[in-house]
Structure formats: C-alpha cells, structure tokens
Design a protein that fits this description.
The structure is a homodimer.
Chain A (H helix, E strand, L loop, with lengths): L22 E7 L4 E7 L12 E5 L4 H4 L1 H18 L7 E8 L5 H14 L5 E5 L1 H10 L5 E6 L3 E6 L5 E5 L11 H17 L7 H9 L5 H9 L3 H5 L2 H9 L3 H25 L10 E6 L11 H12 L3 E4 L5 H16 L7
Parallel strand pairs in A: 1-4, 4-5, 6-9, 9-10
Antiparallel strand pairs in A: 1-2, 2-3, 6-7, 7-8
Helix pairs in contact in A: 4-12, 5-10, 9-10, 10-11
Chain lengths: ~350, ~350
Amino acid sequence: MAKYNAEIWEFESEDLGGPAAAVILGLDGGTTSTVCICIPLLDSLPDTIPILARSVAGCSNHNSIGETAARDTLEHVMAETLLKSRSKRSAVRAVCLGVSGVNHPKDQERVLNWLRDIFPSHVKLYVHNDAVAALASGTFGKIRGCVLIAGTGSISYGFTEDGREARAAGAGPVLGDWGSGYGIAARALTGVIRAHDGRGPQTMLTNRILQSLGLSSPDELIGWTYTDPSWARIAALVPEVVSCAEAGDQIANKILEDAVQELSLSVKAVVKRLCLGGADGNGSFPVVMVGGVLEANKKWDIGKEVTDCIQKTYPGACPVIPKVEPAIGAALLAWNCLKKDTVGNCRR
Amino acid sequence: MAKYNAEIWEFESEDLGGPAAAVILGLDGGTTSTVCICIPLLDSLPDTIPILARSVAGCSNHNSIGETAARDTLEHVMAETLLKSRSKRSAVRAVCLGVSGVNHPKDQERVLNWLRDIFPSHVKLYVHNDAVAALASGTFGKIRGCVLIAGTGSISYGFTEDGREARAAGAGPVLGDWGSGYGIAARALTGVIRAHDGRGPQTMLTNRILQSLGLSSPDELIGWTYTDPSWARIAALVPEVVSCAEAGDQIANKILEDAVQELSLSVKAVVKRLCLGGADGNGSFPVVMVGGVLEANKKWDIGKEVTDCIQKTYPGACPVIPKVEPAIGAALLAWNCLKKDTVGNCRR
C-alpha cells in the first residue's frame, strides 16, 4: 500500500506535455500559512530566480494542528505546486522544507519520513525550522550567519558553517519577548492605562490608540484586551506606536528604544555563543532581518536602529533585507545542498 | 409570585428556637470564592467580633458566571449562613455585600434589586466592590483611605469620606500589572529564559524554578507556560522568587525591588488623585494591605518595603494588616452605616 495520498497525485497519470525538466521544491511552513514554490534546476543561479509555480495553504505547524493534518497540508501544497508547474514527482531533484515547530532532530526525522514516503528515492530531502528558510532568503541559500524575525513574535537564530546553531528569545509574551510587535503594543497599552490612572505621564498614545480601536475611554481597553487574547490583534497597534514616536511622544520613543535594545540583544546573544564574529569579534557575517517590526518607517526605522546597535559590538555584522520570500530561500538552500552533495557534503 | 427562591428559605417555617436576636450579614464575593458571615447586632463593637455563622460558596462575579448564577450563589450562601446561625430573614437588620465585578452604579443597582427581592423592606442594604470589603476589614468598617490588594493580580483603591473613589492598576498582565504575583513570577521565568539563551546573567531562579516545576531544562518552560495560561498557576512561583532574593540572587532582588516600586506607585497614584494626605501631603490615612504578595517573609518583606516607599512621599500613610477577613469587614461596614443611618447619613 502506498503511504502517500494516491488521489492527490492522480494528475501524474495524465500527459503533462513537454520534456520532464528537473525541478526543485522550496517550502516555508508557518503557523499562519504555508507557501510552496517550484524552480527549475539550473546549472548556475541567475540574479532573478525564475518561479515555475507558487501555492499557498494553511498552517503546517504540527504543534498547532497535529501530525496528520500537518502532513496532509504539506503533501497537498507540494502536489498543487507540481501540478501548476506541469511537473511530476519523477522530475523533482530536491525538496527543502522550512517548517515552524521543527525544533528537535526527532521532529526533523518525522517530517523526513513523510517526504520519503511521498517522493522517489533519488530525490534529495532537506528539513529545517522555518527560521532557516528565512535566513536562506537573505543569504542566497547559504546557512551561515544570523536571522532576526520580528513580527507578532520575535526570535533570533544563528548558524555556523559547521552545523552548530543557537537561538534567543522566541519564548512568547509571558516569557518576555519585549522586542516583538506584541511586546511593543502591550507596553503602549500599559502606557495608556498608567497615564489614565495617574501612575505615568500623559502620552499621545492614548488618543491615537483609542481612536484606532473605536473606544472612548482607557477604561474600555481592559475589556477590549480580554475579549480576544490573540497576540496578532494587539501587535497590529505597532504602527500607532511608531507614528506617536515620530511625532515626538516620549513614552512611545522609550518603548521603541527599549525594543531596539531587546532585539539587538537577542542577535548579540546568538552571535556570542556561536563566535560568528570570530575570535576578535570583528569578522563579517550576515544578519537577515525579517518581519513587520523591522520595516523602515519615515523617521523611526527600528531595523536600522537594531543594526546600528549590533554593529557597535560586532562591526562586521552585515544587515540583509531579503529580496525574496522564505520559500524561495528554502529552494535556494536545496539548490546549494544539491551542488555540494556532488562532493558529499550535505545530509539527507 | 415571590421573586426569591422559596425552597431555599423553607427552613424559616420551622421553629428555630430562642428569641429572634437582630443580626447583620457581611459578604465578600470574589472570582474564586464567596464568603458570608453573620454577626449579632451589638450596641458597641467589642475587640473580637463574635461570628454566629460562616459559609463559603464559589464565584459570585457576574462577569465570570453570568447574572443568574451570580444571584443564585449570593442567595444560597446568605440563606445557608442564616440557617447555621438559627436566624430568619426577619431578624436581619443590615446586609453588606462586597462583590467582585461591581464597578459601575448600574452593577450596584442590579445587585441591590436582587437583595430587595429577597429581604423584607426594613433591612438596610449596602452593595460595593469587593475592594471596599477588603478596606473595611482593616479600618473596622470605615470607608476612608486606601487598600492595596496584591495576590495573583494587583489593584489599588482609594476612598474619601465624602464618597469619591479612585483606582490604579488592576488591568491584568497584558496591561502591565508588574507588581502582582503573576507579574513577579512572569519576570522570574523571563530571567530564567534570558540566562539560558545568553541574553542575561545566570540566576539561582533557574534551578529553583525548574526543581519546583519538575522540569529538567529551561527549554521546557515554554511548553509549560502555554499548556495552561492560568495566571494563578504562574503566580504560585512567587515564594521561589522571594527565597532566591533572600539567598542574595541579584535578578530575584531586582524583580522584587521593581515590584515594590510598582505597588507603591499604584497606591501613591490614588492618594494623589484623592488628596488623601491633605493639602501638604502629610495628613494621616490608612493603607490596608491584603494578599499573598504583601505577606511578611524572613528577610524580604515586600509589604514593609512598599510601606516604606509610600511613606517617603506620604509620611502620614498608616499601613494596616487586617486581623479579620473581608466578609467581616463588610459586616462592620454595615454596622457603621446602620449606626449612621439613625442620623440619615448612609444610602440604601
């Protein structure tokens, strides 16, 4: 009995037309959505990567939806991408998945086993945490350096060429990820409450946040906060904080300055543990910056401030804003590994 | 048709024996439990209040369980207390409820209407927030001064003799109640994570907290935190933090010092708004201290540190550790109002 879902792959019995050109699949699996792309296997990579097909599915984090549903999501989105690119599994040379929730070797081995059931044995398979795909999206597929992700949550990952890795932050709001979008917005809400009850100074955040939420008094914030505990809903207030900081509000400025310290500290912690800056700390390494919090604003550019702060300790830190999405990073990583595998340097 | 639950009061048709001595009911209704006590109506109050009966029920916060269930809980626990004290409703002279969730005049009016349906019209009825009962437990029934409650959550309430009131904090962990038991413990967990990933210094909190939770690595704290988001479960770690601070751990000491600042700031904010210290700030007023966080420890006494900090700004602040529980505070408040009502000074 086939261990894969035969009906998903029925399209392969049709004549897809044309010669079976070799392809690579790259996938970025997150808690919100999963993106899969298919690129041709070229001898050398052009500046602009040609995308044969792209598909999007829902969550593929096994911690969130369970193993069976995660496996089904991954298989479906890969089959859809191959169908769109008019390719069969026999044309695939390598598959690289960066999946949220893959934290331990046993998670990696489980997902590798799913892929082994789906693809022919000649296909090279690579499975990593989604932070690796984010890193690779900024390093053209190389796993070396550091990635800082700051969206609703925040996490910093570092990787060395000899396979060591380290992470910092990423523990969620209860455990103090104060540089995350959630952390920034929660502190802004706290500033509004403190101004209201007399514990803190008045701040522009009060009017700006109440207006954006359609509330008339800070008292109503308590109810608003508890009707829906979703972190993303609170993190969505970050633009209001940036806007108040740009207008000169001191509370908003202090919140962003503290966030900059937190985010750069999380990068510096992994750089130190992995000696990414070399013995003297001056060596060069990329820091890939991903996520809404790090995006440039008019006056207040959190990403640039974080970079400046990291470079004070590690002058060789090279900030990189990826030009491609993480799924393409995963495909580039597979392409690199495939090339290296000809000299037996990558693990399957 | 009677608007009260007739079957609850069937015991009143029996001969309860003895003369029908006048009594007062005091009730402290919280989110976890509700306590009702019955005291005799004495001409003057002795140092030790005689308790005729005491009953305990579950939650009576209408925000948590709905209005019908809250009303039923209150009626049942009052009936049980009267039955235990061998008293009928006709013997009751006054009822005072301090109920969590009573924040607006309309909440107060709703609960008053429930009581009006249950008790004969001669009974004096008083309904307040549960913080008022906590205050009254330290002021022998007088509503003047400040109460600081620091358990799982934290809140500060202030009251003037002419009926003005103010509150600070009490907005929950998202909105920054960092002096609460939850806030102290969450910061301690953050300290453990930061020491583990290289963002912060090593701390005794790591071994102490992992041991108390039966975990083997700080990595496991992330899963532990998210399996059960209950605030009380996290706040239960406060004794570990105090113990590490007493042993000289700097991270634990900083967390407690910051909590002291937060808690005293919440008191000072309401004192300032209500001018409880008078025009020069040197006037005398009670600060009733309630909740596990404020209880004395060996070397580290959070309650004493908070008092010292408040007195630096308001030298007339008089800390009071209540000798009786809040339900008795409610009964004493009713007793005081009943006495004043003879000169028409209390509202029904």
